[in-house]
Amino acid sequence: MHPGLSQAERAMLDRAQRQRYKLARAPRFQPLPKDHQAAASGPLPEKSSQRRLLTLAKPPFAVRVLNNLSYGATPASIAEFNALGSSDLARLTAWVDRQLDPSTIDDGAVATRLADAEYSTLDKTLQQQWSEHVRADVEWAVRMRPGWEVQRAALVRAVFSKRQLFEVVNTFWHDHFNVMLSDYDCCPVYVHYDRDVIRANALGNFRTMLEAVARSTAMMTYLDNKSNRRSGPNENFARELLELHTFGAENYLGFMDPFDVPPCPEDPGYPIGYTDIDVYETAAAFTGWTINNNHWEFTHADKDNGAFYYHSDWHDSGPKFVLGTFIYPERPALQDGRDILDRIASHPRVAKFICRKLIRRFFTDDPPQDLVDSAAAIFRANWRAPDQIKRTLRHILLSDVAQHTWGRKNRRPFEAVAAALRALGSEWTYRLNENRSDDLNWRLGFTGHQPYDWPAPNGYPDIATAWSGASSYGMTWKILNWITETNNVAGDGKLLPILDITRAGVPVAQWTANRLVDFWCRRILGYLPKSSRVTVLRNFLAQNGDPATYVIEDTNTWSQNDFKRHYNHERIRSMVSLILMSPEFLSR
C-alpha cells in the first residue's frame, strides 16, 4: 500500500519506532510470501492426509436441520419444527427467525433447574467474583467454583435449553475467543467472561464483542495484556487478536515492510493482510489497558475490584502505523486501541475469516467459497449494526448449503454427550459436588473436550481430522456407553430412563428385536439407517431368537444357556449404546 504519509509524519513515525523497538538501524524486511494471493479464495491447504467421504442415509429434513443447528434432534423438537410451516424452507425460516430472537423464548425452566441444582455463582457480579473468589482467603474449590459452574452449566443448557441455536453460537464464540477455564487466575472471574462478554454479544455486533473481549478481566489475564506497558510491551494479546480473533493465519504476511503491503483486492483502502509490525504497533496501542488488581503503581480509589482500568502512565502515546493507517500521537484515552478495532472490524478479510469459521461450525469442514463471500458481504456491510452477527447468521442458516448439507461434520465429544442426553430423555442435572456429575466430568476430561478448557489460545479445533483418532473415538464411545449403564446415585435407578422409554414406546407384549431396534433408531437418529446396520443391531438384540417373532421378556435374569433370555435389560441398554456409537449418530 502507499498511504501517502507526509515527510513529517514519516519522520515522526520513524523516530517513534526506533525508540519503541530499540533499533540501531532500519530493519531488514522479508518480501511478500509468494503463495499469499491464494488466501483471497480461502485458507491455505492443510498439511494432512486426504479425507474420504462416507455417504450415509439421508435423514428427514427436520432431523438434518436440528442436528446441525442445535445440540441434537429430539422427538419433541422434530414435532415442533414440522408444525412451523407447509414447506421445508418455510419451516426452516420460521425456526431460524425464532431462535435468532432468544429473548422471546421462555427459558425459565433452565434457570430453575440450575438454581435447584445449587449453582450459586452464575448471577454474581464481577466485583463479587473478585472479592469473594480472588481476594478472599478461601480454599481452592471455592476460588475455582465460578468457572466450574460455567463449565457444567454449559452441558445443562445444551441439553435442556429451548434457546438451542443461541447455545450453539455461544460455544462457537467461546472457542473463537478462547480463554482456558481452568487457569488459576481466570477461573474465579469466568462467570463475567461467559455472561457479560460472550453471551451478551453472541448475536450482536462483532466490533462491540471485540472491545468487550479486549477489556475483559479473563482475557487480559490469559493473554497478559494486563501487564502491557510502554516500558515493557507484551504482544501476546495483540498477536492473537490479529492471528486468531480476526484475520486468521492465512492473512499473515510475516516480517515485511508495512509500506510495501499490497492493497486488498476486495477493497484497496485496506492492506491485503497484517505483518509483524502491525502486531507490534497494535501491542503499543493497547498499552495501559489493564485491570484494577491493586497494582502498587495505582493511586486511584477502588483500585482492587477486578474491573477494567486504563492506566495512562503505561500507555505509549507516540505515533503508530497499523493496517495502512497512521495514528497521531497524544490522543484521548483508549482511542488508539479503539481505532485499530474499528479498522479490524471493517476489514474485508476479517469478514471472510469469521464467516468461513461460522459456516465450518454448522455445516462442513470445507466451506464453499460462494457462501463465504456472500456472508462476508453482509457481515462487512453491517459492521456497525447492533445485530450484525444475527443478520449474517440468518443468511448462512437459510442458504442452500444449510438446506442440503448432511453428514459433513462430526460431533465432538461434548456435543455427542449432549445429543445423547437429549435424545434419551434425560432429566438428570449435571452439577457440582455430586458423584455421577463428578464421574462424567472426569470422563469428559479423557475425551479432551471439557467445555472451555482448551489450553492454547486458538480454542478447540472444529474439523473432523482433529477428533478422528483412535483415542478420541475410544473415549467418546466409552462415555456414551457409560451414560446408558450407570446408576444415578442422586436419584432412583439408572441415569437414563431407557427401559421406561422402551415400555412407553413399545408394548411389552411386542418386544421383538425388530420392533425394539426400529423404535430406538427412530428415537435417537430420527430415521432408520441402512439395512445392513439395522440387521446387525437386530441380531445382537435377538441373540439366538428370531428377530421378527421372538418376544423378549421384560426381565433381567441370568440365563447363560439361552442367550435370548440372558440379562435382557442389559442387552437393550447395550443396543441403545451401539446406536449412540454409530456413524449416523456421531455425524451431522
Low-confidence stretches: none
Number of β-strand runs: 6
Strand content: under 5%
Strand order of the largest sheet: 1-2
Main sheet specs = 2 strands, antiparallel
Tally of separate helices: 26
Report, as a whole number of angstroms, the end-to-end distance: 44 Å
Percent of residues in helices comes to 40-55%
Shape assignment: elongated
Q: What structural category do the secondary elements indicate? A: mainly alpha
Radius of gyration: 27 Å
Mean pLDDT: 93
Pfam families: DUF1800 (PF08811)
Region (Disordered): 25-51
Protein name: DUF1800 domain-containing protein
Structure report:
The chain has 588 residues and is mainly alpha-helical. Among the domains are: 219-346, no CATH class; 498-586, no CATH class. Helices cover 49% and strands 3% of the residues. It has 26 helices and six strands. The protein has helices spanning 7-20, 61-69, 75-82, 88-99, 108-116, 126-135, 140-160, 164-176, 190-199, 206-215, 217-222, 236-246, 276-285, 335-345, 348-362, 369-381, 388-397, 400-404, 413-423, 435-447, 470-485, 498-505, 513-524, 531-542, 568-580, 583-586, and strands at 263-264, 267-271, 289-291, 308-310, 320-322, 325-327. Strands 1-2 form a two-stranded antiparallel ribbon. A two-stranded antiparallel sheet has the order 3-4. Strands 5-6 form a two-stranded antiparallel ribbon. Helix 15 packs across helix 16 (369-381), helix 15 crosses helix 17 (388-397) and helix 16 (369-381) packs antiparallel against helix 17 (388-397). The longest helix has 21 residues, at 140-160. 44% of the residues are buried. The mean pLDDT is 93.
